[in-house]
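Tokens as discussed.
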């Protein structure tokens, strides 16, 4: 999805994150190390995809935190990282791969409902803090003006 609507970011991530990780992944390590066992078990494309999602999730979280001046325990980061199991399931599980409608529902539910909810979750406290005094004071002024006119 993102490679079609956000072409510059897709090209940047493909060039600077995905391809370097994919090319560096199969290099041999000592066979006894735990990292070598993981590298043998995980294909380079999956490792590169996970690294790209990780990098993109950090950038998204950082952008939201800076824009909202609020840290929410990396909720946005974890919500984006939860797409990795969904992608792996859609590629590896035959029954899920054949359920195009279910996959579309999951994607659009996350994009249309969950991400805007998270943005509201991040921005509401900052918005409420910046506008609460003006709303309360303007409401008090209206009440005071109405009281003097009676």
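Sequence:
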């Amino acid at each position: 999805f993102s490679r079609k609507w956000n072409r510059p970011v897709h090209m940047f991530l493909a060039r600077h994150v995905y391809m370097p990780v994919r090319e560096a992944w199969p290099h041999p390590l000592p066979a006894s190390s735990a990292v070598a066992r993981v590298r043998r078990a995980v294909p380079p494309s999956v490792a590169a995809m996970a690294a790209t999602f990780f990098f993109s999730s950090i950038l998204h979280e950082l952008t939201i935190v800076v824009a909202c001046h609020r840290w929410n325990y990396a909720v946005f980061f974890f919500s984006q990282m939860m797409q990795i199991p969904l992608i792996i399931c859609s590629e590896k599980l035959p029954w899920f791969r054949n359920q195009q409608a279910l996959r579309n529902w999951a994607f659009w539910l996350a994009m249309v409902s969950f991400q805007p909810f998270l943005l509201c979750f991040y921005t509401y406290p900052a918005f409420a803090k910046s506008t609460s005094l003006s709303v309360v004071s303007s409401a008090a002024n209206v009440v005071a003006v109405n009281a003097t006119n009676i």
